[in-house]
Task: structure prediction
Amino acid sequence: MINKVYAFLYGSSLYRLSTFETIWTVITYAIIEPVYTYRFGHNPQLRLAVQKEGNLQKDLPKMKRPSKRLMEGLTYVLPLLLMDITMIKKYAGVPLEEMAMTGNHDLKSASMSCTYLRPTFHRVTWDSPFQTTRAVPASAPTSRTILVQLFFSITIFDQLFFLFHLALHKVSYFNKIHSVHHGHNEIHPQITNRLDITERLGLVMLANFSLNSINAHVLTRTIYIPLFVGLLTDIHSGLELPWAYDKILPRGWGAGSKRHSEHHEHGKKYYEPFFTICDEFFFKDVQDS
Result:
């Protein structure tokens, strides 16, 4: 099954676009977030703020219609597209020669590292001013490889973002940047992407580092995107859902929407997005008030 799916993707010109992952992320978010937003707007009994106050008539927080969020979308997409068309994509299992060709490099005259953590820029010429394609590995990973890589990449991101998030709260300059994300009365799904551009780029770069640090296969990255977007939207949903990921994991393993809602309300603990390892170790005894 995996081999057939990957063979189809490998032969697709769309999948080989340098901008594919940005496009795929936007599509994924445009599908997942409205599902949560609809449930938020039509199920007051599931809203954490309503449960806390015991008021089913509580007004909905101010949210935007899709037509009013075009600037938000552009602010998200443009910096990523700029990186997509200027930097060579490096993936595990791809020969250095193929990477160099997509970046308009000549290996005989230019030094280019295949290290995934070291960026290499597209060589700009009149014939090739932008990076438009990416080289992907010819063979598919095994299902076990995908599962292991997803587990470690999500876990690595979770620990790294804990530190990044802590800095956003504790360093005064970064706190001003992060205040954009906390500027609301009640947390809701649209808060997921309500970020200052600096914080948004930090989020994306940490996710990329988490994948690159374990040499994740490009198919793992493709699956990682909806998983990652789904988890982020879930913790910002402001909803107590019976099928949320923290209800599926063993009790106490997943941070979930309730913890993250408390973080947005008080900001003194629960800095870890998906799990509870660091928060339990460093902030277990911290009180909200």
Remarks:
- DSSP finds twelve helices and no strands in the chain.
